[in-house]
Amino acid sequence: MRLFDPHIHMTSRTTDDYRAMAAAGIAALVEPAFWLGQPRTHVGTFDDYFASLVGWERFRASQFGIRHFCTIALNPKEANNPAVADGVMALLPRWLEKDGVVAVGEIGYDDMTPAEDKYLAAQLELAKEHQLPVLVHTPHRDKKRGTERTLAVLREVQFPEPLALIDHNNEETLPLVLRTDCWAGHSIYPDTKMDEARMVELVRRYGPARILVNSAADWGISDPLKVPKTAAAMRAAGIAEADVAQLFWDNPVRFFGQSGRLELAEDKPAADALFEGNSILRGQAAR
Ligand SMILES: [Zn+2]
Fold this sequence. Notes:
The protein has helices spanning 15-23, 43-62, 85-95, 114-130, 143-156, 174-178, 196-206, 226-236, 241-257, and strands at residues 3-5, 26-32, 67-72, 101-108, 134-137, 164-166, 183-187, 211-214. It has an eight-stranded parallel beta sheet with strand order 1-2-3-4-5-6-7-8. 40% of the residues lie in helices and 14% in strands. It has nine helices and eight strands.
């Protein structure tokens, strides 16, 4: 079965990860633009980062037969940095036109500051203008209140709920999201927060509709194989094969397909392919 990781930061992963993901059945992924851990002090570094998501990472993934899509946005944390926030907003319309950009994201709340309110609302408007879905991060601290506030803002700006993916849910927030027409993402982590067993329980309880599962792997302690591992845990727990297929392929395809840009046909490069004149094969050629 083909698997889809709808939230993973490949910028911070190696070719070993790409190879292991492909071997485990991951055929497509979405890489949301995010906070890199090190605060950025220039608008230009965002421009280069967005270029790497749209071009370089997509090329890297293609060497392993994985379809790479991304989402572009001013992330919640750096919405609080007045030195870059408006400059990044001014870049977005150009990037949101690009092939492979399947949503505006990650947007949402980190600390729930007035600046975050402002840029969340502004980016929801931008998504409407570009007729794109949104990928919404929910805060790790005070998650319930952050989720409630996010859903309230979506209603205030009359954002179409079927175009919103609310991410990083847990037992407390999933029922709030399922009460709306939004989609609900879940990030499976190695040691903390949501794990495979808890995810199985949520699917047993609520079924597979509008539910997505991702690894959210990044620079931190995380596991780029959490999608295949959670799919295996679902099967081991007796979840029906059709439900597993819905969770790990059909749902992300349906959600991000709303962008009109989820082109899933393979674009495998030639073994000697160059990206902007730069070979990255370096002796360890793709399969
Ligand atoms: Zn993320």
